[in-house]
Specification:
The complex is a heterodimer. Chain A has 3 helices and 19 strands. By secondary structure, chain A is mainly beta. Chain B is 28% helix and 16% strand. In chain B, strands 2-1-5-4-3-7-8-9 form an 8-stranded mixed sheet, covered by helices on one side. A two-stranded antiparallel ribbon of chain B has the order 6-10. The chains are: A mainly beta, B alpha/beta.
């Protein structure tokens, strides 16, 4: 997890956000002169869109905790709920051909361990310039936290900063910092509302499962290609690639069958571009069209040797 | 049997006649005036010669890649409307990279290119003044050069060595969230230029660019106001 943001960076970001609100849009329209900044804002497809009054009208961020109070040694989730205005969308951990991922920075009390954020199954937004992956309406992200084995009685305070990029016909960059304070071993602590609990349950069910949970799964790495077969419980089958430094993907080929599907995912490995990170093929193998249909997390470490074509 | 005897010479005669006719038929001469079908320009590829292009900047001055022979060239795909580009200019990270490179090598050439379909020369005047941009912004509203280089986002950076070979393309830096200070971030373009000057292999030579998509002009359409 990242360190909390330096104050001067925040100022720069605020200035940028203001500029973004005024000038936003990924189109190439003329930039308005200073005396009428914000007077015009033109959407990327050439239609005129009124600029949003505030980014808060577009994206609302709030936080929840999966437990009402913390027990020593327990692992629980902090959750970030993003609610987006109609037709706006934000992005998965890999935005795809454009956009930018939603990311989090968590400041936790000493002794607490902050895990890697978990992203629910994204939608695929088709675009002539390349598909993007993300979320509309409402999305909930999970951040696992593990409490230390011993805790004093003081409430634990967590500060979560969410960095996001939200687009409709224009794009806005934003961040939101929220605080969650949880009591320790307090049986009287207030539980989540039924609505929030239902929301948590809905999005927990949309988290990708381990690839090993896919029925009859088999996979191989051979000649620059990851091949996965499995039981086709839903139709269609799609592979959503997640870029990792040093690994690039070709176009995946999915062959549906009566019972089993076969996915062939070509890839290239260049260890010199790995930026010091472990080489891995990452992505989601998703079955069915609904966001509630199953999705499986593909995370297969590779070495540069495995990338060599067979002689 | 008799009928077969009569048919065979007839068929031979017919075949011979057709062959002679074919040989005698004059072939149309190749028209030297007829324009040959233009070859598809070769797309940019790492460690290969960077494709030639010709574009006008906001002041109407024409720039050809070959004008800058024997110089290291930086291409920056840009869009003043992209929040990521705005941040890089507001924090001056982009201008700082340019200044750093100019200190390294005065002859380095930096060309920004806007390949969005609505890019116009006039649209950049305020942007250039406001951010004190010291290099030209070229207008590629048809998107031909952007597609030639397979520029995907803004910003998307390309570094070409003094022999005209593409040595790096991708992200400007490792500061996608904008939370790193100038001292903390790694600028991949500056790093690549240093490696080129030190005659080292450029590594990394690709880092996935972050930023906004480029809104290319759909096939068959003309830009509304490509350049004044």
């Amino acid at each position: 997890m990242r360190q909390p943001v330096a104050p001067h960076s925040r100022l720069a970001r605020l200035a940028m956000l203001a500029a973004g609100l005024i000038l936003a849009g990924c189109s190439a329209e003329p930039v308005p002169p200073p005396d009428n900044d914000g007077a015009e804002s033109t959407a990327e497809n050439g239609q005129n869109d009124a600029p949003p009054a505030s980014i808060d009208d577009i994206v609302q961020v709030r936080t929840l905790a999966s437990v009402p109070s913390i027990e020593p040694g327990e692992t629980f989730d902090l959750a970030v709920v993003m609610t987006l205005a109609e037709h706006w969308h934000t992005y998965w951990i890999d935005a795809g051909a454009s956009g930018a991922p939603t990311e989090f920075s968590v400041a936790a009390p000493p002794g607490f361990t902050v895990g890697e954020a978990k992203y629910p199954r994204p939608q695929v937004f088709s675009d002539p310039n390349g598909d993007t992956f993300g979320y509309e309406h409402e999305v909930l992200f999970f951040i696992p936290i593990t409490a230390p084995a011993t805790l004093d009685d003081n409430p634990a305070e967590f500060t979560i900063t969410t960095y996001y990029f939200a687009c409709k016909k224009m794009c806005l960059m934003g961040d939101a910092t929220r605080t969650v304070t949880l009591p320790v071993s307090d049986p009287t602590a207030e539980a989540l509302s039924d609505d929030d609990q239902a929301l948590l349950n809905t999005f927990r069910a949309r988290l990708p499962k381990s690839l090993s949970e896919l029925a009859d799964v088999q996979w191989t790495l051979e000649s620059h290609q990851l091949s996965i077969t499995g039981l086709q419980t839903h139709d269609p089958v799609v592979f959503i690639p997640r870029a990792t430094p040093g690994v690039t993907f070709g176009d995946p080929h999915i062959l549906p069958g009566d019972e089993m599907f076969h996915a062939a995912i070509p890839y290239q490995v260049d260890p010199d571009n790995a930026l010091g990170q472990p080489l891995a093929i990452r992505g989601l193998l998703c079955l069915g069209e609904s966001l509630d249909d199953p999705c499986y997390d593909v995370h297969i470490p590779v070495t540069s040797e495995e990338s060599e074509p067979e002689s | 049997m008799n009928a077969r005897r009569r048919t065979l010479p007839l068929m031979l005669l017919l075949t011979l006649t057709l062959c002679l006719l074919g040989a005698a038929t004059p072939q149309p001469p190749e028209d030297p005036e007829k324009p040959e079908k233009p070859e598809e320009p070769k797309k940019a590829k790492l460690d290969e010669k960077a494709p030639e292009f010709e574009l006008k900047d906001c002041k109407g001055q024409t720039h050809k890649l070959s004008d800058y022979k024997d110089k290291i060239i930086i291409l920056e795909w840009t869009s003043p409307q992209c929040p990521y580009v705005q941040r890089l200019y507001t924090t001056r990270d982009m201008q700082r990279a340019y200044e750093q490179l100019k200190k390294l090598d005065k002859k380095i050439v930096w060309l920004a290119i806007n390949s969005n379909q609505r890019a116009t020369a006039r649209g950049h005047e305020h942007w250039i003044k406001r951010h004190e941009i010291k290099y030209p912004i070229l207008i590629d509203a048809k998107g031909e050069v952007g597609k030639l280089y397979d520029a995907r986002r803004t910003p998307h950076m390309f570094v070409i060595d003094s022999k005209g070979i593409l040595k790096y393309h991708g992200a400007i830096d490792d500061n996608r969230l904008g939370v790193k200070t100038a001292d903390e971030l790694v600028n991949y373009v500056v790093q690549a230029v240093k490696q080129i000057r030190d005659e080292e292999t450029v590594r990394p030579n690709y880092v996935k660019p972050y930023g906004c998509s480029i809104k290319y002009l759909p096939e068959g359409q003309l830009p509304p106001d490509a350049i004044e």
